[in-house]
Amino acid sequence: PALAQSLKALAANDCKTTFLFAQNGVPFFFPQSEDISDAVRGHKLTSVDPSGALADAVPVSSCLGCALFVCGEIVGDDDSSSSSDVALVVKRTMHGNARERIHIGAPTKDTHLMSKARELVHVLCVANLDAILIETP
Fold first, then answer.
1. Less CB within 10 Å around the terminal CB: N or C of the chain?
2. Using CA atoms, how far apart are residues 22 and 102, in angstroms rounded to an integer?
C-alpha cells in the first residue's frame, strides 16, 4: 500500500508517467487488458494486489508489462539421497536456442503506450539485452 501511494502521485500528472512492472507471473492489471475474455475482465487479482491498492493507484493506460526469461541451471551436489544441506550455485548457461530474453508489452492498443514500449525495447537492445516487443492483438 505504501508503494501504491507513491505510484499514485506519479500517475497524477495526466498519465504521462509510464510504469513498467517486471515480474514472474500475472500483473495486477491483467483483468483490465483489452484482449482479455469477458469471463476474466474486471476481476481483481488478490494474490498479486490483495487490497487493490495498485489497481486503484495506477491506471492501466499507463502500464507496461515485462516478463523476464532467464536461462540457467543449478550446479551442485546431485546426490539426492543426502538429507544434509547442499550449497547450490546458479550459473548462467545457454542450451541450444534458449536465450535470456525480456518480453515487453502493453495491456492496451493505445498508440502512445505502444510507442513507449517500442522505445524501451530499443533502449534495452542498444544496451545489448535481448528484449522483444509483444504486440497487443
1. C
2. 9
Collapsing DSSP to helix, strand or coil, 68 comes out as strand
Distance, CA of 109 to CA of 4 (rounded, Å):
24
Q: What is 89-122 written as a DSSP string?
A: EEEE---TT---EEEEE-SS--HHHHHHHHHHHH
> Which pLDDT tens digit goes with each residue over 13-42?
665 788 888 877 778 777 777 766 677 777
How far is Cα 115 from Cα 41, in angstroms, rounded to an integer?
25
- Per-chain mean pLDDT for the chain: 76
Q: Which helix or strand (DSSP H or E) is residue 72 part of?
A: strand 72-75
Which cell goes with 102?
525480456
Residue ranges, the chain, pLDDT below 70? 1, 13-15, 35-37, 70-100, 137
Rounded to two decimals, the pTM is 0.69
Judge contact between 137 and 108, C-beta under 8 A.
no
Phi/psi of residue 120, nearest 5 degrees: -65, -45
Place of cell 508503494: 3
